[in-house]
Amino acid sequence: MLRWHLQEGRSAIPKSVKPARIAENFDVFDFDLTGDELRLIDALDRGVRGGPEPEAITLEAFGRDIPEE
Fold first, then answer.
1. pLDDT 10s digits, 21-39
2. Are 2 and 21 spatial neighbours (Cβ–Cβ below 8 Å)?
3. Domain containing 53: what range?
4. pTM for this one?
5. Residue 68 domain flag
6. 69 pLDDT exceeds 70?
7. Cα-to-chain-centroid distance, residue 1
8. Residues 60 and 29: beta-carbon distance below 8 Å
9. Number of domains forming the structure of the chain
């Protein structure tokens, strides 16, 4: 997915604390996805959100304290 983001000109901000996974995240610059591969990944979008609407994510809805630090 990182290669797809980069190749399509999208921003990608990967997050990991595991050294092996961080190395994998950097290992996306020595290849390109083909046009067919890009189209297959694009076709995964069904236009349906997989989680709650952003405005529905509130302290009241999820009942969790937000730590100060």
1. 999 999 999 999 999 999 9
2. no
3. 2-62
4. 0.63
5. no
6. no
7. 7
8. no
9. 1
- For residue 32, give the nearest of 21, 23, 41 by alpha carbon: 41
Determine the Cα–Cα distance for residues 12 and 5; give it in Å rounded to an integer. 6
Domain annotation covers residue 67: no
**Residues ≥6 apart with Cβ < 8 Å to 12:** 1, 2, 5, 6
Whether 38 and 4 have beta carbons less than 8 Å apart is answered as yes
**Three-class secondary structure of residue 42 per DSSP:** helix
- Residue 31 included in any domain: yes
Tokens linked to 38: 């890009």
Q: According to the 3-state scheme, what is the secondary structure of 4-31?
A: HHHHCCCCCCCCCCCHHHHHHHHCCCCC
pLDDT at residue number 66: 65
